[in-house]
Design goal:
This protein is α/β, with parallel strands linked by helices. A 10-stranded mixed sheet has the order 8-11-14-19-22-25-28-31-33-34, covered by helices on one side. The protein has an 8-stranded parallel sheet with strand order 7-10-13-18-21-24-27-30, with no helix packed on it. It has an 8-stranded parallel sheet with strand order 9-12-15-20-23-26-29-32, with no helix packed on it. The protein has 2 domains: 92 residues, Udp-n-acetylmuramoylalanyl-d-glutamate--2,6- Diaminopimelate Ligase, Chain: A, domain 1 (3-Layer(aba) Sandwich); 184 residues, Hexapeptide repeat proteins (UDP N-Acetylglucosamine Acyltransferase, domain 1, 3 Solenoid), CATH 2.160.10. Helix 2 links the parallel strand 4 and strand 5. Helix content is 15%, strand content 31%. The radius of gyration is 23 Å and the shape is flat.
């Protein structure tokens, strides 16, 4: 997430009420999570296990809960609670804006696009040309939809990320300030839910086709011409490369990559990254032929046990 205009290290430190390490005029251009940070971004870290990863990332400003040696060319913001202060920045630079109309006056809707009754279109949404948005679809603020997109009834674009910190007093929510981006020629079925990124984008690329009742988590990227069947759930920060097929009731863990043209058969559970160009099945998902062999071997166990008993 980029700020509306460049900030300085000193101004951000003053906003948060924290100390800093680095030049007061050190440029601060935005904020992002570790997997999408760029030069000029703030990233937060609050556990020693991840200090090195944050300090060596592309981020040039590290919001951290301990004063450490600052890498050359970077700056630190020293906070007693980086999670809280990261939320403070999101709320400051991208505050919630209530709507007063079903279709916001700030929304941009392209030529030839049809919006059916009872659709909600939030603030600063952009919808391209020749789209069809069916009834009871909710499109939250800042979503971007390309041309020739069809979205069926009851689908929600842009709900908050499922991202919490477990504190003694309860779960503390990481505020979402990202977007959902739908590229051209995408079809989305009924009652799908596509969560926005925490600071970046959840992206559905050109030509992807989604069936009904699919959940896609925050910051996930669905590649071009992917095909996803109903009741599939994809956790956050996952990458599906181009032309991946996920059949019904597939579950995908967060933070992995499924390679180009991979096929995952129905009711499989994907708990690790998968190579492209292969077919997978089972939970945990493995190459389908190998998994079928394993199942065949298991069926032989009663026969082998009986045979062993007779010998003994």
């Amino acid at each position: 997430m980029k700020f509306p205009k460049p900030q300085t290290l000193e101004s951000i430190a003053a906003l948060l009420g924290v100390d800093y390490v680095g030049p007061s005029d050190f440029p601060v251009l935005g904020m992002n999570e570790i997997h999408v940070v760029e030069e000029g971004d703030i990233v937060f870290v609050d556990h020693p296990k991840y200090y090195d990863k944050a300090l060596q990332s592309k981020a040039t400003i590290i919001l951290i809960n301990k004063q450490v040696d600052c890498p050359e060319g970077k700056a630190l913001l020293i906070s007693d609670d980086p999670f809280r202060d990261f939320n403070k920045l999101t709320l400051h630079f991208k505050p919630f804006q209530s709507s007063s109309a079903s279709i916001s006056e700030s929304a941009q809707i392209g030529k030839g696009t049809v919006i059916q009754p009872n659709v909600f279109v939030g603030n600063h949404v952009r919808i391209g040309e020749n789209c069809l948005i069916h009834s009871n679809v909710s499109i939250y603020d800042h979503c971007i939809i390309g041309n020739n997109v069809t979205i069926h009834a009851g689908t929600v674009l842009g709900a908050d990320a499922f991202y919490y910190k477990n504190r003694p007093e309860g779960f503390d929510k990481l505020i979402s300030g990202g977007r959902v981006v739908i590229e051209d020629n995408v079809d989305i079925g009924a009652s799908c839910t596509i969560d926005r990124g925490v600071t970046g984008d959840t992206t559905i690329k050109e030509g992807a086709k989604l069936d009904n009742q699919i959940q896609i988590g925050h910051d996930t990227v669905i590649g071009k011409k992917c095909l996803i069947a109903s009741h599939t759930g994809i956790a956050g920060c996952t990458i599906l490369e181009d032309e991946v097929t996920l059949w019904g009731q597939v579950g995908v863990i967060s933070g992995i990559t499924i390679g180009k043209k991979a096929v995952v058969l129905a009711q499989s559970g994907v708990g690790r990254s998968l190579e492209g160009g292969k077919t997978y099945f089972g939970s945990p998902a493995e190459e389908a032929r190998e998994k079928m062999k394993q199942m065949a071997y298991i069926k032989q166990v009663p026969y082998l046990m009986e045979k062993f008993k007779k010998k003994t």
